[in-house]
Every structure is written in structure tokens, then in C-alpha cells.
């Protein structure tokens, strides 16, 4: 027998109409249920199998009736679950879920049972309860106490017309409704248990890899919500809005394959329809990959959208994927990772209440629709379902418009009656018919107003002492008591109707308090409801924070929130034992309007700001390590503090917060850099607008603060790829990226001092330029797929969009990529086996129009491609040897190619013919070519270290060769007008040239950690883009021509070895460029010129204790001893004599070798691990102290003087080891 999911306990008379239909529905849903003999197989022992089932079931359903209490077996089953529940709670374990179904016993009857009642006037008289056999099983008093305990557990109660008579006949609809409600509740609980069980198994196994788990990430609608997803008219077509929307989602019509969009005003039921669709059986059967509900709202920005996408990924098992998505600063990259995670799985993504606001553009639905699969069977694709009230939004898929219901139509009546809990027939009861009709008219068919009115009536009926039908008239009088609505129906039947119901709800809960309660300073529901104007639309506020806003204890706040929920003023839900208060958008608008009439919204924001700052202040939030806070209040404050302080007018406090390194550290740890960046930009705009002119900003000192915030913002963004969750590692990044401005800006100096004070020990304090500067000429870092690739070409169009080609390591597959100015990335794989035969793929490019591409081969062949059609247009052979580089004009009509034969050739793409003669002048192979936008000028770079510009029409060179690189030119590019050229070299630098004058513009742009293999320029020549063998693409500001920092990048090849003087004041490095360089640790500057003489790469270096002499070994099999002061060779020997030479001239062992072999035994335990510099904690775990932009390959540490020197690529990083 399989393990039991659900155990159904019942008495015999209740089997046919309740127990068996429920059993069949749950079994059909895939749950393994136990229902006495139905669940047994031949040979099973009844008692044993039943005991196993009730001891192991995750969910127990108990259908209560008088016979249930009188039966020995049913009460034994109940007693078993009560025992299991109490034992689990007592031991801190998850208890089984116990669901009482009050079928023919009411909650009131069970609650009012008196164990001391001797008159026995209760339901136990139905059968011979007091038989001798029954008394041996349990006493009467025990059974009564057990049923009383059951009444205290949340259950499902039947229609109030139920009696205690076993022959009571319920209507078919009433029984079916009860079964459906129980089924939905059991299914929900089973799904929750299953999700938690999988999580516990993964945790127990120590598994850290993401495992996809489809789920339904959506809340259930309250039971009183009336919807008809499967309603159809006489012709068989859907006849309700929600039914039409469901049909659109399930449609296999290719024109609506993306999904659907629900439109309409607020409060007409769109959100409820979306939630119902998420839990619909047909929907779940179609979308096996799960359903993921996300909510935005009018206050949302791109940051909230990204967070909602991350939550969907995490809910499906992608915890690490979600963490990586949060680190991205662009929505397009988040969508790329999200699509890769869900891959080919068939999912439904529901995004509720989308607006084109706060950086979310009008085309957002099209961008999000990339989550739907674009290929394959249309029945097996993911879909998207949206809702919106924004007419400016460009919609996708089939549009379904939701409208208010007919004022007195059947739908409106059903909604009102269901929400009120009244018998539907009561609508026609003469005693309340007129009041019901009037309430329906005043609600104007608005579902939200009908629901609020219904819950208000329910609240009054539950407390009504007289005839309950009179509650309708009483409620109507409260609706009319406010001046917001007259006795006749409102003009547009929309917002006025909702206002009237909300005012009525407040009147109801304030009954008995007196009209002057608020004026006298007493408690007022109106006041605490107004206070919720500070909430964010479509978002909740933790009750732990709400109670501080309301100035009361948690229990009181919870009590009042429950009361307001019962009259439709708020929603109260619980997540991980924390209560959350939410409101519908229109109810929130009502709270805002009421606050504006009284004390103003700003007053409440200021109060909330004060509440957030209570205790140890906002910076106390930054003390917790890790990505997420377990405290709901702290998490909410962290995510909303910018909005709260800004709306409360606390700009100065907000500025001071953003200038705190501890706050920025927490931003990085929690993956909130995108939101922080948007907030800083907005705050700086506010400061500039309120501060006046730039000169006034300087006079008031605000210019310092504005620049420092922008600097920290850029530092945070650049640091994210190199940060884990270690505070020391994050502070290393921030410190290293802003310290160059400390002497000029007091704010930056204070930030550095804060880092020095608060960074946990030990930590590495950057001395030299260990990481790239924030605020330099690097504008953006585009990371391509994290696999070995070759970037063949990158370009930039006039709008700032970046495009290019790259291939896999074997050169057998080529992908064209394009990133638009708003950072949307598109990849197109060209379908061809490029690496077959004797020829090899050597180069390629794509036109700025993204329509054409040209590919070059090792045998001199060129192929011209149509990217959109993914087909070859022409294949020609024009060069005598390997094609090294190709480029195209903007329109793709002309192409230029350069070859190892030293020639440059121009082509007509339409015909595949060469234009004019070959262009010759280079003395060595042409490694790269470029072309102006109009195709009239071409530029070429060569291994002869020169750059040349050509007039395509005449075939003549323009001016002299452009020289300056210290190694072969690997790539060139040209501005659209042909007036500027850019070149990248093996010396790892990028240089920009004025073609007309032949002069270099500014200094070399450095920052790549590998050969700059590809460069290009924007049409106006103001920006350049470069691609490197370090697998990165970087964008540069050409006008400033500034180098990124004063990094120790004098060597033109990777650093192979480092050493240090005995006093820790000097360091030495050796490189593949065959040179040795010496550095001043205190200043980070090179001492003298490079020490040259080796004819092979330098493999090892060392230094004397006083730093005056250095030793180096090389692949040229020689060892050289250097006089650092004079820059000359003291001794030249053989590599095999290394040890003798070291002892003779330096009087010390090679410091690098000593430190590498002995450092793990040092007290501090700081060393290199996995390319990072780490500290080994006492428990054996490793904390990253520093991660450079490429892995560390050589390192040196001096414990005595607290100096750490590391080599990473061509950079030497000098750091102070602070204990």
C-alpha cells in the first residue's frame, strides 16, 4: 500500500453524499486517500491497514455528525490525529493537518458541549451513546472535551440550515458546495506539505544545486468570491469575462499564442479572475511546469518587477538562479536568465496590474513575452496572462475587457449574497427585498463594492440579536449616512459606490465608540485605516510594523486588523507565522483621500519614518550577514526606506544613509543594487533641483555629497560580479574603487574611514589600484555566456546599441548578438557547420542594421549572410591567404576584409564582387579592418603596430600611418562619419584617433585583462566598445580619454610571479613580457623603468630584505640579479644555479616559495584559494577577503609587516593586511 496523503474519517450515514464524492475528487487529483474498505486490497487486515493510514497520513478530514460522535472507530481515529498533532507541536515538528468538516454538527454545538451536563439534552441521544461497550472506549466527558478541542481548530462549516437529525435531507447543491470547499482546502494543504517535504529532503542531503520543482505560486481567493470560469451560453461559448479569459489562455490559436491581457477599471474582478485561473484544474493540466503569479501595481518600478521574477524562479526551486538574477542590473539580463531556468518547461506566468510607470516602459508586455517559448508545438508553449488599467500600455495576446456587472442582475445578486453568507433566497424575502435591491443599485455592479457590502452585512448579521433580515436595512442606512452618496444611485456607479461601502464598513466597526472618539484622542478605526495610506500598492506591511504605526501591542493590532478584514477594509494573511496587512488598490486610494482631508499623507510618512528609525536605528539592519533577513519588519524597512523617507520629506537623512558604506554593503549583500541605483539617481536629481545651480551646490557643499553618492553607486554596480556575501570582501571592493577621490572629496574620505572602522578583521585594505575605479571611463561591462568563446566582432549603432558575433571554441557555431539601448539582449544562432573541411572559420561581423553578416575563412574565402533568413547569399574567394578580419557599412551593402597577405579589399554585398583594386601598404599581416557608416572610408590595423585609413573610392591612404601601440594591433573600428578611429592591441589597451589630424585622442584606455581583440565606435564617435579574450565587452567614454585608475599595469603580458622585500615596502613582479618591475608598496607606483634583458618569459622573482636587489628566473634558462636603484644587471647565471644565486646575492630564500608552502600554518591563515584571497576561520570555513577582476595566480604575504602582494593577469595588487 502506498503512503497515505489524506485520511477521511466519517460515520456510515455520511459516506454516500459527502465522504465518497470527496474521496473520488481527491483521488482524481492524484492524491492517495484512505476511505475504509474502499482503500483496501484483498488480503489486507482491516484494522492494521487503517492504523497505518491514520498514523502516517499528512492530512486528516473528519466529517462530523451525531453518529460520528457515537461511533467507537471514528472517535478513535480523531483521537489518533489529536495525539499526533499535540506530540508534533510539543517537539517542534510539523504537525499533521487536521480539517474538521462541521457537516451535521455545528461549531457552536461542539463549542457549547458541557461535560457536566447531566440532562443529556444533546445530539448524543440520537443513538445509544451510553452502551457498556462504548463506555469502555471513552467516557462521555472525554468525547465532549475532544469535540470542544476540535471546535477550536479552523474547519469548514456546512450551511446553517443543518440539523442534528440523521434523516435531514440537504439539497444537492448544498452538499456539492461543501464537497468542493473541502476538496479545495485539502488540495491546498497537500501542495504546501509536498513543497516543504521536498525542501527538507534537499536540505538533509546537503544538496546546494537548484532542482526544478513546478508549483502553483498564487494565493487562493476568499471563499466568498463569486466567479464562473466554466460558464457557457446556449451557443457553447464562454459567457462571463473570467470564462473568456480562461479560454484565451488555453487557446491554441497561433495569433494569440502568447496569452491574454485582462483590461478594465479597478475593482471589476480582474485580480480575482487571475487567481482563480491559476488554481483551475484545466490550467494546471495544461501547464505542467507550474503557474507563477506576480503582482506589480501603480507604485511598481523595474526593481519590483525584477524581484517578482526572482520570486517565481525561487518558488520553482531556483534559489541560486534567483540570487544571480538579483545581481543583474538590467531587466533584459534577468529575463535571459529566467528563460534559461524555465527553459522548455510549459508554464503560465501571470502578471497582475501592469503599468507603464517609474521606468517601466509601454512595451513591457512585449519584453516579458520573451518568457513564452518561440518554437515547438503551440500546445506545449509557456503563456503569459496580464491585467492592466493603463491605456498607454501596448498590449499583447487576446484582450478581454472586464466591466461592472448588471446592477441588479443575477451575477450581482450572487456576489452580494455569497459575501454576506446569507441564503440566496433571502434576496427575495419581503422583509429585506427592498433593502437588498437598494444596496445592489448603490454598488453599481462593481464587484469590489459588492464584496465589501456583503462582508459588512455578514459582520452585522453575525452580531444581530433580532431578525437577521433586518441587518440589510441597518446596513443600507449606514451606506446612506455619509455625504459621499445620496439615496439615489450614483452618477457613474463607480468610485462613489465603493466609497460608500468603505465608509459604511468604518461606521460598522466604530459602532459604540461614539462619534467624538477621535476628536477626544481616543482609539479610532478611521484613524488607523487612514494611517495605511503609507503602504505601497499591491504590497503588504508586516503587522509587527503596523502595530508600531498604530502605537499598540501586537495582539491589539492583530485584533483590530481582523475586525477591519471582516468588513472588507483590509486583507490579513500570514506567511511563516508573520501577519501581513494588505489593501486593494482602490481601498488604498480611499485611505489616501481620507488622510489628505485630515492630517495629510506626509504626516503619516513622517510618523512611519520615525517608527523605522526606532531602536538602534536604520544601520542596525546592516549588521546581519547574508542575502535575506529572517525578520519581516527589518526586510520591509530595508526595501521601503527610500520611499518612506522621501515621501516624509527626510531628504537629508536619506542622503546621509546613502553615504554610509555599511548601507551600501547591505545593498550588495541583499542583491538590491538595481533599486539602490535608481534611488540614488532620483535623490541626486531632487538635490540638484532643490539646490539650484552647480555653483550653489558647490557653495553649500552638496556637490561633494552628490558626487560621492554617484561614485558609491557606480562602485556598487562594478563590484557585484566580484562579491559574495562576505562583508570583508564587499568592503575591499568598495574601498578599492573609490579611494582615488578621497583627497578631493570629504564625503569619500569619511566613507573610507567608516570602512576601516567597521570591516571585520582580518581584512585587506587596497594600497595600489587593485580593482577598476568607479567613475572612470568604463561605462558598462557586458558579460557574454560564461563559457570559452571567441568574440569575432563588436559594434555600436548611433543609438548606443551594441551588436556583434561570437563562436564556440571549435569555431563550428556562430551566434549574432544585439543589445538595444534599453539593454534588451537578443541572440541569433546561424545554422551552419562552419568548421568542416580543410578550411577554418577565422573571423566574422554583422552590419549595424543587424540584417547582414560576413564570415571569413582560413583559405581566403568570404561568405555573405542574411541574418534574418539565416542563409548564405554569396561565397567568394578573394584573398591569397587567411582572412583575418571583416567589417561592413551600416546598411550592410559594403564590406571590407583584411588578410595575412597584407592586403585590404572592399566588396559589394549585393553582388559579391570586389570594388576596385586591393589596398596595400602594411608591411605585415592585416589583423583588423573597419568601415565608416557610409562605406566611404575604411580603417585597418596590422601586426606592424600601425593603423591606416583608406579612401574606398580612390583606393588611396588618408594621411600617415597612426602609430603608438607597443604591440601588434589586433582590432580597429571607425565612427559613422569616418572622422575618428579606434584600435585595440595585444598590449591590452584601446586607443582613439583623430583621422584628419593623425593624432591620438587622450591616453590609452586600459582595463581589459586580455588581448583587446575587437573594437568599434558609435556613430557620433563619442563612445567606443571593445571585446577582449577575457570574455568581456566594455563600453568607453571617448571624449575624456581617461585611463581607469593608476593600476599597476605597466607590464604588457600576464604577471607570472611576485616577490616582496623584507620590510614590506617594495614588491617585484615578473611577466610574460620578459620584463621585471619593482613597485613602491606605500604609493603603488613603479620604481624606475622596467628591468629588461630576458629573452623568454619570466617565471619567478624574489627580492632582498632591504628591497635594493631583485632576482628573476626565465624560460630563457637564465637567472638575473638586479640592482633596483640603478636599474642594472648585477649578475647573470644559469637557471639550474637558482638557489646558490639567491643565497649569494639576496641572503634569503625565495619569499614566494616560503610563503606558499608555509603560510597556511601562520596565525592569520590568509592565503589564495580558487583565485581569491581568503581567510580560514576557526571552524575551517573560508571567507573571501578579496576577489580581483581576474583570478590571482601568484601571491606573497609578509605577516610581520602586514603586506599582501598578488599577481592577477597583468596587474600587481598591493594590499595592507589589517588585523
TrEMBL record:
Q: Where is the TIR domain?
A: 2-150
Q: Which GO terms describe its molecular function?
A: ADP binding
Q: What superkingdom heads the lineage?
A: Eukaryota
Q: Where are the WD repeats?
A: 876-917, 919-960, 962-1003, 1005-1046, 1048-1089, 1091-1132
The record's Gene Ontology biological-process terms are: signal transduction
What PANTHER family does the database record attribute to this sequence? WD REPEAT DOMAIN 5B, WD40 REPEAT PROTEIN
Quote the protein name from its UniProt record. Answer: WD40-repeat containing protein
Biological source species: Chondrus crispus (Carrageen Irish moss)
Lineage of producing organism: Eukaryota, Rhodophyta, Florideophyceae, Rhodymeniophycidae, Gigartinales
